[in-house]
Amino acid sequence: QAKERGRSRVETFSLTLQHNATKRAQMDVALRFALDRDELSLCYQPKVSLIDGSVLGFELLLRWRSEEYGDIPPSEFIPIAESSGIIIPIGLWVLEQACWQLNRWQSEAGDRNHLTVAVNVSMRQLMQPSFLSDVAEILARTGIAASSLELEVTETSAMANPAQTAETMAALKTLGIRLALDDFGTGYSSLAYLQSLPIDVLKIDKTFVSHLGKQQNDDAIVRLIIALAKTLHLEIVAEGVENKAQMHELQKLGCLIGQGHYFSPPMKQHEAEKLLRANRQFLQA
Ligand code: C2E
Ligand code: MG
Ligand code: MG
Ligand code: MG
């Protein structure tokens, strides 16, 4: 009987796998047409100063509304796009959109010159030999200040290819753009490696932020990451700030920038524009 149960469990498991594989293959095909079919869009999540509540910039997050499959989250379609390589044209599209948006903001109002846009970049893109010249070309075409563009690479993906990542990042740095290590704290990078990377920003992974303000010592990792960032002269951004307690805790620990649903979920472009026009200060709200 136990054997029977065991077998049926195995069967269910492999059926699920097969189903997943089929779904993945179907999505892979659909994703190839997504750009041409105008199914991709970007949303904007504000990065907020924890000192005065002002909007410092936005992270751009990709959305896919598939005709066949509906809304698919990035956690599902980005890995597929990476393994097929379709992330390369998609990633360039994201980058170009981001730079044109910034161009509009920068020419609209002089005092918005400090605004930054952050774009997520996958390892597959970073390892593309033409990536550096592609980025340079987009910067030239859109005419934005390179220092207003930030590229985010996850710590885990950087660690998958540490030497090449460091090399490519160094080359990208010569363009004058900013570099961030995303989901920091989840990827096991060594201090020595961190120091060798020409990065400007550490983004504390939201799992650590979510633990803040609950129990004693829950701030240990965040405290450590902030100390590390200070030692290495890096800017620090907390992601996934969901409530006031977490924000207060972050302020207490000396984290100056936050992002998360407590301030705003990722929003549509026109909402981001409205936010900027209103000059909204999040801490006074
Ligand atoms: P990420 O870069 O770490 O982005 C932050 C994620 O946290 C986003 O998920 C965002 O919607 C979510 N988030 C923001 N505030 C909160 C909060 O308060 N609580 C919680 N629980 N979550 C919050 P999203 O948009 O689903 O994106 C997931 C990941 O997909 C991103 O993580 C990034 O790694 C990847 N991604 C998104 N857009 C792109 C893109 O254009 N290119 C590439 N290569 N990757 C992308
Ligand atoms: Mg990110
Ligand atoms: Mg992140
Ligand atoms: Mg993430």
Which radius of gyration do the C-alpha atoms yield? 20 Å
Number of helices: 12
Tell me roughly what share of residues is in helical segments.
Answer: 40-55%
Order of helices and strands: HEEEHHEHHEHHEHEHHEHEH
Q: Structural class, from secondary structure content?
A: alpha/beta
The rough form would be described as globular
- Look at the structure and give the mean pLDDT: 92
Instruction: Indicate the low-confidence ranges by residue numbers.
Output: none
The portion of residues forming beta strands comes to 15-25%
Q: Sheet with the most strands?
A: 8 strands, mixed, barrel
**Biggest sheet strand line-up:** 1-2-4-5-6-7-8-9
Bound molecules: ligand C2E, magnesium ion
Distance between the termini: 62 Å
- Total number of beta strands: 9
Describe the structure.
The protein has 285 residues and is an alpha/beta fold. 50% of the residues lie in helices and 19% in strands. It contains twelve helices and nine strands. Helix 1 (2-34) crosses helix 2 and helix 3 (87-108) runs parallel beside helix 5. Bound molecules: ligand C2E and magnesium ion (3 copies). The site of ligand C2E has 24 residues, from strand 2, helix 2, helix 3, strand 5 and strand 6.
